[in-house]
Amino acid sequence: MHDHSDHDHPEDRDDHSHAHGHSHGHGGHHHHHGPADTSDPRWLIGIGLNLTFVVIEAVAGFIAHSTALLADAGHNLSDVLGLAMAGIAVWLAKRPAKGRRTYGWGKATVLAALANAVALVFASGLIAEEAIRRFGAPTSPQSLVIMGVAAAGLAINLGTALLFMRGRDADMNVRAAFMHMMGDAVVSLGVIVAGAAIFFTHLAWIDPLASLIVVAVVLFGTWDLLKEALSLAMDAAPRGIDPEAVLACLAQRPGVTEVHDLHVWPLSTTEVALTAHLVRPGGADDAFLRSVCDTLNREFGIAHATLQVETDGMIDCRHLHAPAA
User: 182, CA 20 to 30 Å: which among 28, 130, 167, 224?
Assistant: First the structure.
């Protein structure tokens, strides 16, 4: 049997339910596209503002002999690359599935988030190395230049962060952009404080110390992003979705006596897929399948669900597909 049905949801997305026949039961498939918008101007605005500031800050860092400014410039450059990767990934994710890429390009958003986190860790290592070297050969930085450039960075970072407030709970790349920009704002504020301390004390070692503090803040903020991106790249269930709760929800559907072969994984940073086998001795019709898929979408945000309904609880698909000895 085959069925198409549209459903209206608060997110104003189009949903489609499909039912497929299987060799020993019926399956339901429910799918909708993620909210990423390739026309979203935030990525280009954020990239343009921050790339311009990186050039200004790097030049000022060399002129003022400040590793703190150079450290912040390196951090901001990694954020620019991260914004670019995320924007490209959002564009790729909207390309249609075809050929061997039956799931499309959605996973590019996960890879972009992972690459962004790794780039931040790598940049932090380079900055820390330079700061440690400066402890052995301190130079007298120009504190007024440091404070002026850092103040401009504070304004730009806060403005860019505000651009990414909307949608940060639904998309890991948007959340990463928001977190990075807010982190940059905090770092810029710290650099201003360091510049003021140098101005009043004339202690050159404050500058490399501020650089190491910048590195510590960056690594602290990157750790959660790195863990989450790595988990999604390994097809772990996305943050906020408990597979045990999903299993319990499926087991409570009318007539379901058993749930097995449950898999939940990310198609992208915004889309989640699920496959599961439901044992339902009475079989299933289109209304049951649509109801289950709508429940998964509403309660867990799982918009791409494929369900196989079995009438015989003794069937184990893992054994049916086991390789010959």
Answer: 130
